[in-house]
Design brief:
five-stranded mixed beta sheet, about 40% helix, alpha+beta, about 375 residues
Length: about 375
């Protein structure tokens, strides 16, 4: 009995002591934040150079890479520990700047030694969200060169003002991502996407897989008939043939884009690659990694390795690099034209030589008839 009383007393004092311990409020949920920030009229009275509009479109935010991965608002806005609904604004109005480096450490290190970070020495602040935006960050893998440059570089830079030395500027801007030259130490690859020539649009991954009657897991098994884990020129031709059987006619559209690695942030003045031979030669390292890419709805893409010779085939006629790639089919046509022209000339001369005696006798008879 005494033992039970002893333990009961310990439990009582433990519970009593716990009442005096400091307590922390529950973690703030995104839904609580949206109670105010879903109001499209919400804005700062005095922005002081910060974002004036405080409205968050939840229909866009829910598809952001942070929300999809379970990152809460307060994981970034970490100085908000609790909400006090007795105040007009339930948290401090002057929040600290979000520290992206807390999660993106390698990206932060690459950015520290970049021209964009160094601009702060001139009084220009270029934080992460100046390029990536605030709350609607999505995967960039599946975006085209046009979409990547418009979303980032063209916000501040007009490429036509700085590339007078570059031949065929518009072609480079359309098919080569800026960072391919401006972050030359980062890995890049050639992305091939099927382009529908009839409807003048890119074929979506779902349309392509549906037409081929397969899925992401079965695509490589269908394409890679010799099972060497690389799609060859012949296997690309088979894919085009299969699509033509479904009345789908198209070609492959190629672009040179960057892998989404931290070093793409390491852009520096004077560090851009201006050596044309790096790309415009048959052994260019720029063509070592070639992939057929199937883009997914979440902004990521699946990669399927393709042999380099595919770039020289008729079915990648939207991607031609002078001195770097050659369309062998066009070479054959050119050779046929040259040989055909030579055969016509040789044939004509041969006929003239063979028929020379006949023409000579005809001329002699004509002259005899005229003199008589």
């Amino acid at each position: 009995m005494k033992k039970k009383t002893y333990f009961g007393t310990l439990i009582f004092f433990a519970l009593l002591f716990s009442c005096f311990l400091p307590t922390h409020g529950h973690a703030v949920e995104n839904d609580e934040c949206m109670e105010c920030h879903s109001d499209d009229s919400l804005e700062r009275n005095e922005s002081e150079g910060m974002k004036a509009d405080l409205f968050i479109d939840y229909n866009r935010f829910k598809f952001s890479v942070h929300n999809v991965n379970g990152i809460a608002c307060v994981d970034c806005h970490s100085d908000i520990e609790e909400l006090n609904w007795d105040n007009e604004v339930p948290h401090n109005t002057a929040l600290e700047m979000v520290d992206c480096d807390g999660c993106h450490e390698e990206e932060g290190e690459a950015y520290l030694d970049s021209v964009h970070k160094k601009a702060s020495g001139k009084g220009i602040t270029i934080p992460c969200y100046a390029c990536h935006g605030y709350h609607f960050v999505t995967h960039l893998e599946a975006e085209s060169v046009f979409e990547r440059t418009n979303s980032f570089c063209l916000k501040c830079h007009n490429p036509n003002n700085f590339h007078d030395w570059l031949p065929q500027k518009e072609t480079h801007f359309a098919f080569v991502e800026c960072a391919v030259c401006h972050a030359p130490d980062s890995p890049r690859y050639i992305a091939l996407r099927f382009y529908d020539l009839i409807f003048d649009k890119f074929f979506s991954d779902k349309e392509c897989l549906e037409a081929l009657e397969t899925d992401y897991d079965g695509f490589m098994d269908l394409m890679d008939q010799d099972k060497d884990k690389i799609i060859s020129v012949k296997e690309v031709e088979n894919m085009v043939f299969l699509l033509r059987q479904k009345n789908i006619r198209g070609t492959f559209h190629g672009e040179v884009v960057m892998e989404m690695v931290p070093t793409v942030h390491h852009v520096n003045r004077g560090g851009a690659n201006r050596e044309c031979e790096q790309c415009h030669n048959p052994e260019s390292p720029f063509f070592e990694e070639v992939y057929i890419c199937l883009n997914k709805d979440d902004g990521t893409r699946d990669f399927f390795k393709v042999e380099r010779n595919v770039l020289e085939s008729y079915y990648v006629n939207h991607f031609y690099v002078i001195g770097g790639t050659r369309v062998r089919f066009l070479d054959k046509i050119g050779l046929a034209l040259v040989l055909g022209g030579a055969c016509v000339v040789i044939g004509h001369l041969s006929v003239r030589i063979v028929t020379a005696p006949i023409r000579r006798r005809k001329k002699e008879k004509k002259d005899e008839f005229a003199s008589s």
